[in-house]
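Section 5.1 Outputs to date
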Amino acid sequence: MQNMFFRFGMARNLSFVFTYHPNYFSREASRHLPVIRPRFRNGYDILCNHAVFNISTFSRLLPSDTRYIAIVRDPLDLFISSVNFFSQKSQLIRYIGAVPGNKVQNLIRNHRYDMDFFSYTKNAMARDFGFPKSEDVDIVKNKIGELNNIFTVVLLVEHFDESLILMKRYLSWKVRDIIFIANNVRKQNGYSINDLSLLDVNTFRNRNKLDYVVYRFFFERFWRQFEAESNDIHMEVLNFKKILKEVSAFCNSDSIEQNVDEPLHMLETRWNEQFNITYDDCDFMIKDELTFIEILRAKQGSELPRRFRG
């Protein structure tokens, strides 16, 4: 998603919010990292770096007509993915590294390994949406209501293509704007749901109850929005899937290594205009986050001082 917004903004010479950190805007809702004001732009158009959401903070930086977009994922899938990711040597988080044996199982069964109210493996979505540290029913209900009024679309990881088509319609984007190649996707290894018992799963649902509140609410809202669209949205999704397959085949072909200049020509359909995909497009679709950010920083004059680089 971030790569998509980077490409959208770059193509239109829009301005991004960047801070004195390589790729984070904030780590908590109450404050954000110092912002680097761009030398070549006035104001900001897009904020899509890692952040904990706070509408007051975001709205002070972004235009009044900003559309807010988020994405949610099944909490158990998110938990397992986080444990796998943060167990890697290059990404290791201390408390996860301290868990012995079956990490997904022991994090659920032994409270002492993950005692904070929020963490990377406990109600991480609720934390990133800016929920307070409370399970009080009224407080949680009020926060959900607030978020419901703020976010235009909340996408579903498990229904990513459908989500992008719905977002495209709400934002009046074109199909070309939502083309992507899966990037930074972990291979199918490590822990899985097969490492958990039914009791573990039930315990997890209680342990991460805030994330389940968030996920269920936006899951149901997404499908109400989706089904409220015209009937051809189902055909548009199928058309989009077909385009993605063609783009993936083109970008992964031998021709790209041979520097062949002939682009991929996508014909006009009921849901998209005619457009071309070049090998430069392919390159940007798979560009890693930090490299892409450096390009955008240089373009708008928000370079990170050397002493703040990793």
